[in-house]
TrEMBL record:
SMART domains: THUMP
Subcellular location(s) of the protein: Cytoplasm
GO CC terms of this entry: cytoplasm; tRNA methyltransferase complex
Region described as Disordered: spans on this chain: 1-30, 136-200
Full protein name: THUMP domain-containing protein
Gene3D superfamilies on file: 3.30.2130.30, Vaccinia Virus protein VP39
Amino acid sequence: MSSQEDESAGGGSEPAEPSSSPSTEIGTTSGDIITVTIGATVPTGFEHTAAEEIKEKIGVDARISKDRGRVFFPITTDKLFQVHLLRSVDNLFVVVEEYHHYQFKESKEETLMELQQLASTLPWTNALEVWKQNGTLKKKKGHRRGGNTAKSKPNCEGVGGSMASTEQQELPQENSAPEGWAGDTQAMETSTQDSDETGHGSKLIKFRVTCNRAGDKHSFSSNEAARDFGGAVQEFFQWKADMTKFDIEVLLNIHNEEVVIGIALTEESLHRRNISHFGPTTLRSTLCYGMLRLCKPQASDIILDPMCGTGAIPLEGAIEFNHSFYVAGDNNDMAVNRTVNNICHIQKRRADKGSMSGLPIDTVQWDLCSLPIRTSSVDIIITDMPFGKRMGSRKKNWDLYPSCLREMARVCRPGSGKAVLLTQDKKCFSKAISRMGGLWRKQHTVWVNVGGLHAGVYLLKRTGAVFGQTPEDVYESRGAVHMQGEEKDDKELS
Ligand SMILES: C[S@@+](CC[C@H](N)C(=O)[O-])C[C@H]1O[C@@H](n2cnc3c(N)ncnc32)[C@H](O)[C@@H]1O
């Protein structure tokens, strides 16, 4: 795999030479085991967690991209099914080609022309073979609502190649689509039920190009890049562009001067796999996995999520770290119902597959500030606290956070207990924790992105102090804790 510092990847005003990734070095014929590079999007902040999981479960080193929230790793295709079982990855793709230092031309016209020319020179064969093998492994989306994975991010637009008709250029004669991949091939093992028939009675492949672009030095928009690159892909393969019912999604990821072309291997993000009953602030299972790994659950640990919402964290724990026991609680009856339904859904899915093992999890309705749990009896507390935006309010957090830290300290085992707490209300959390030094020690913070909000995952260690014998145990009223200035900020925020 090329290193990110590989200067030979590009130079002068010409486009960078393709980097020699495994996907381009090892040839193949259909059915062979080949080596390719897989790219995965992961929750930002938990890239290293993903790399650790990949090393543990697939045995290879992952490279963390400059573009936060992505990892790349080599696999042989016999390991493809294991890639789909990773718990830390959201979306998967196979790399067609990557350029670490792509030298974009100055003018928009020249750059777009070059992107068009690129399409016919890329080493598509191995990536398409992986896409084909992946057809039986990937989880099919129940129904596509307005497309596969298009998001309304400013820099993320999905564009079918058909829009490129006005700027298409002639392809060099010597370039032709890899054998068996022209649009009228019969070799496709895709969801072709709704694909068009070609004149020969075979299936016409539908595709779209999605461009994700980040960086402010580009003379073109992601829309224009997807349109022109997509047009050239269409011309090269003779595929049909379709924004919503596509068989193949080609990804054009541009991050400053890094360009990665890939083919998507997931129809919907893997983070949705546990939850059937969503709530207003359901956490991605991949983020839950990262939080769980932070606290290293051990066999027979009692693990509490006292504000479980839909149960995303304890469910991920009960599935992946199933030698511990989880208690999921919430004071909202709708949240408790959703958690119960989510647990039942997974139990049923397992039973349908012939598995008799239940999940080590129970659900309770409670008020976190007064838990029906014995003092010093819990090993780990892991929860996603109300940010005070969509859930609760900033104002309420000034009461809630100190109360819940105190009650968590009561039930948590002194000396060995841990807490992993997620919040975006960093100011309130920092204030509350700074007054709890006798009960909690802040060990580590992971900064994450939750739905576009910059949030902290705080790893706390319970001190050895016996509950009831520190000044922190005494409840301080909101008025006593705050200075006047903070009160003003709080009002502005709420
Ligand atoms: C951010 S949400 C948790 C979302 C959850 N992680 C999920 O994936 O669905 C916070 C939860 O805290 C609950 N909550 C707020 N105050 C509480 C209290 N005093 N006791 C118990 N739960 C509380 C809310 O009802 C809400 O479900």
